[in-house]
Amino acid sequence: MNLDNPAIFLSLLVFLPALAAAAIACFAPNDNPEVIKKATFWTTVVTFLLSIGMLFGWPGIQFQAGVDSMQHLFSVDWIPSFNIYFALGIDGISLPLVLLTTFISMLAMGASWPIEKHVKAYCVLFLLLETGMIGVFLALDFFLFYVLWEVMLLPMYFLIGVWGGPRREYAAIKFFLFTLFGSVLMLIAILMLYFSSDVRDLPTAKLQEFRFSPAQIEAIDEATTPQHTFSIMALQELGQTTDQFKGKLAGMTYEWWAFLLLLIGFLIKVPSVPVHTWLPDAHVEAPTPISMILAGVLLKMGGYGIIRIAYPICPEAAYDLAWLVCSLGVVSMVYGAFAALAQTDFKRLVAYSSVSHMGYVVLGLGVWSAMSPDYNADYWRWGMNGAMFQMIAHGVSSAGMFFMVGVLYDRVHHRDLNKFGGIFGRMPVYSGLAVGIFFAGLGLPGLCGFVGEVMVVLSTWKYCIVLAVIAASVVILTAGYILWTLQRVYLGADYNGPHPEALTPLTSREFRIAAPLLALAILFGVYPRVVLDYMEPSVSRTVEQLAPMTRKFEAKKAEEPAETEIAATTHSDMAS
Questions:
Q1: Three-state DSSP class for 569?
Q2: CA 68, CA 540: separation in Å to the nearest integer?
Q3: Which residue, 11, 64, 194, 284, shows the most beta carbons closer than 10 Å to its own?
Q4: Could you read off the pLDDT of 485-496 as tens digits, one per residue?
Q5: How far is Cα of residue 129 from the mean position of the Cα atoms in its chain?
């Protein structure tokens, strides 16, 4: 196998966990769960090493920092009768998320050692879930993206429903229904865009850039009927340079409807208020390693979908509805923080904190501040980069917080905050790591949570001062529930809950999971360039493509009232 070939390398990166899952399902002995766990863990390790190899000079596929375009892009026939292709590629937007996915998956599998029920089934589903997550971040065909998006749904449903807590069936069904609803809306938008598209309007140079084969380009040139496409990059170009998605439906354009449907589907995954209610139940009932993946990776797919698909393909609708995106982001921040303050369940508090922190992501993506009179896109660029950085930072801190909650739950089998206390004296190493990780979630300067939040708040000031002030004020609420939690759990009076004898020091396995998370939280907080150097060129390129279109959108809006007035006058004259 030639791993120097980008097509082979990226395909292996996506499907290695699935191949390992098939091997485990077929050949692993049921009576030796330890072997199955080790095989699964080492599969996640190899997958992580493959992904990290792109940064450190893996021959032929090294990722070039500072390059803003898609790298190692390839496309091969899959279902050519519908112009569906197996297309993968990676850029500065997807690379950090792929690395986050493989890293958190590796740690989550390390945290899965306490799992004892149906170990083979658990490990197979875990690896299938990893394949779906990596594939979503690399897919450049909309149909392939949708298939991989759905691949994640079933494993996560069973991982919650079989290995979760007492109300696991309810939480799993709620997660399934919410996610499926969002997927159906996304599918409608995909079909709407597909049947409105025609790649004959794109120049040959662009088709070559998007890796259309010579045979495909020749067929497109000779075609006399519309040539529809699922290519995400082609749809982005069509959305930004043509009027193909401007057909009317119920008074609004196809683009407007497609953006709204995609936005709802992605916001369910983020999740944002009011489509967030599945998250606390899923987190509370999910086993610890699945909570780590759910918070650390799955929530980021919503933000990724907005920046990769919704905004670039439907820019005019995104501009029109930027106020909605920003408002939902701020509402989620405030609501999540107040809800966290009201919790007495340790895990549910952390779940609501995720709703609040992911609100910064939605707000940063939405602050389309390149408006008249100066049309300066710098602030929006800060917001977009801040949102992307916040996704990585939250992936690290939230996974760490859920793991720390799980460490206590595995010992004392409860999460009641009112029954904790004095943990620092009984488990000093654990408590020190936990305090550091929770401070990273708080957004303390010098830790990872601070950078993204500051960038988002600064960018919002140019868009709307009121929203910026509210977003900045949420930091006070965040400090309130984080510090109150630390005081109730780790400080204060002595522990007064059940099983006090079980409060034993961290095991070496637990330490090896928690310490890397805290180390990354410090590294990203002290030296954020380690992430931004790879991320910023591609994110800024997206802003630079979309921001100049603001003049066109505003000019179009200025013409619409005049056209309406002329039409009304004409109608009045005819009536006379």
A1: helix
A2: 8
A3: 284
A4: 999 999 877 888
A5: 14
CA distances for 219 relative to 142, 207, 226, 275, 405, angstroms: 21, 12, 11, 43, 57
Residue 115 has which token pair? 């799992």
Distance CA 381, CA 553 (A): 19
Cβ contact 354:362 at 8 Å = no
Boundaries of every domain in the chain: 1-151, 162-210+232-320, 331-549
**Number of Cβ within a 10 Å radius of residue 445:** 11
- H helix intervals, 286-427: 288-293, 300-305, 311-313, 315-320, 322-341, 346-366, 378-412, 423-426
- Report the C-alpha gap between 359 and 355 in whole angstroms: 6
Q: What distance in Å separates the CA atoms of residue 167 and residue 146, rounded to the nearest whole number? A: 29
């799980």: which residue's tokens? 406
Q: By C-alpha distance, which of 188, 183, 184, 162 is closest to 173?
A: 162
Q: Which two tokens stand for residue 326?
A: 């920003």
Q: How far is CA 180 from the centre of its chain?
A: 17
pTM: 0.93
Which tokens is 457 given?
Answer: 């708040």
Put residue 160 in one of left, alpha, beta given phi > 0 → left and psi -120 to 50 → alpha.
alpha
- pLDDT tens for 421-458 read 889 988 999 999 999 999 999 999 999 999 999 999 99
Label residue 448 exposed, middle or buried (CB < 10 Å: 0-12, 13-18, 19+).
Answer: buried
Distance, CA of 308 to CA of 96 (rounded, Å)? 14
Question: How remote is the C-alpha of 439 from its chain's centroid?
Answer: 22
How do residues 502-517 score in pLDDT, each as one tens digit? 899 999 999 999 999 9
Q: Provide the 3-class DSSP secondary structure of residue 30.
A: coil
Residue pair 133/298 in contact (Cβ under 8 Å)? The answer is: yes
**Do the beta carbons of residue 333 and residue 471 sit within 8 Å?**
yes
